[in-house]
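ok trying again, last paste got cut off:
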Amino acid sequence: MNQHETKKPSEALWFRQEAMYPPENTLYLYSDQELDVATFTNARQRALGLDLDALATRSAITQPVEETKKDQGVVATVSTDASSHVAQAPSAELSTKKELISSPSTESTQPPQPKPKTPATPKISVDTPAASEITAAAALKQSESAAASSKETSKTTEKSAPSADLLDILAGKRGPWLIFVVSFLIFAIFSGNRFFRQSDQPHYVFLADALLSGRWHLEDTPAHPVSGRVLDNDWAYMYVVQMKNGEVLRGRFRGMYQGKHRFVDLRKQQKLLAKGQIKGWKRQYYVSFPPLPAFLMAAPMWLLGKLGLDRMRYNDTAFTLFFAALTVALFFLLLQRLREWGYSERNTYENALLTALFGFGTVFFFVAVQGTVWYTALTLGAFCAVAYVYFGLEARHPFWAGLFLGMAFLCRPLLLLAGIFFVIQLLYDREKGWKNPFSGEVLGKAALFVLPLLAVGAGMMYANFVRFGSPMEFGHLYLPAVYDRALQHGLFGFYWLPRNLYAFFLAPPQFLNKTPYILFNAHGMSLFLTTPLFLYLLFARSRGQRPLFAALWLSALFVLLPSLFYQNTGWVTFGNRFSVDYSVFLVVLLAISSIQIKRMFLVLLVWGIVVNAFGALVFGRQFVIDGRTVQFFNDNYYSLNWIHDWLYRTFPFLR
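nice, full thing came through this time. structure:
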């Protein structure tokens, strides 16, 4: 507490607003002499701006009359937390009139001393009603000594906060379930007719069916199980060539050369095959995307088959929406845990706002409602990333952290680089500082963390070898849209950096003077236009949790950087869909940072929700406007080619 350096008039009162967040929002009234009931009530009323007469029936004198020294002070507390009522701290004997007011959590170590009996006035303790009965604006009125920024923050937060009853529910065991139900309903509404049918690109349904049949490849050319339409988008395939001499080759044809078929096998060796040498060939199709969603779909699809239903009609859209809502609920639990363990000073209301930011104010919103192969993988990857951070905090659950990181790898391989988060959590203790990396405790937890990762990695390497002849080949090289580009410039390379930087962080929408009036580029739109609150992170500071702050920053950067050099911008996408992989870490950074939730923060939050709701509504859909069928995105793949043309024309040495 503050020490009052100068002596005040004996009848004066000193007031202090102790903290910004419940349950510490407590107003203390100090006096250097005893107050009777009327004086005390009037002083308290002036300090809080409350009409205490209207609450007189709820007030009571709970402390008996005592005989005290004239130098004793009176302390009254008013809690603004709806979950706690007022507790009165007894006044403490002070050595001089320049009183040192101690913290309400600090107890006096000196036993009370007997005092001469003198006439005394009663000391009172006022039992105030819960915060829901006190207007939010009045309960947070600041004294002149409070900082101006604290006043504005407190007032803005309380004015826009929901009712105390709702906050009580969110803070309790039913809170995450409520968030799950509300999120699922919102996702289902924006998904629309997609929710009731299988998605247009149900690759994981095909993979789950193949796995249930004991193989990794598809037997036939993939056709949609419902419409029968041939599916030709992002299937990895290769040719199985039967030679007349009995040899079987697997690889890709790359045209003709000197009258012979040019063939590249799985070891990247080129061969020239004469037509007379070939007995026949066929295409073999694979799902190159990491297989965790198919593993999870296999069980319900198996059950459908046992019930006599067509398991190939499994609804992968509803499956994706379920995990999307589960991700939002788990993210709220993560923020609550950060507060409970002292890493965050956000209250339940602010954690609910940050949860809304992650679920509906980032491109996760549009990703969650699609259901197709690319967005199902992103949604499941986000779920595993949230669970990984949840169990990885302070390295308390190393096995589960390792398991969920491994599962994240089976959705989005780059998420494996977020392992730096657990490493820092393992090596740093808030009380003891950095640990000895070779201590028994550290090595034991490290072993539990690595064990599931090794199992997942070994399984994936075996699957890659069976499918593509190399344990390190996931199959993206064999996607038709990737094959030639990857052979020319590499799957990852500096050639792709300028285009990706522009698409991820700079690309604006295109405005027209005719319908539909606005187009977003299918290569993506700036991260700071879809989620402008991420700009706050450029100015964010840690609240004393620097190792956790660094762990989150490094995790986000490690996952982001490789995607900047990848041959694909995320085409076709609304915003930067790859940002879903690291948005988990960025929003948690906001939660533990010094950023205050004030009016502008709320404005930008609403901006993000509106923009991403627009993306969730219009992405992949066509609309009839003024008698014309229109879409809201520019699907010209070559629309960003000007970046390379300009760059190499201006800086020819970069070619």
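cool. The chain has 21 helices and 14 strands. The longest strand covers residues 248-257.
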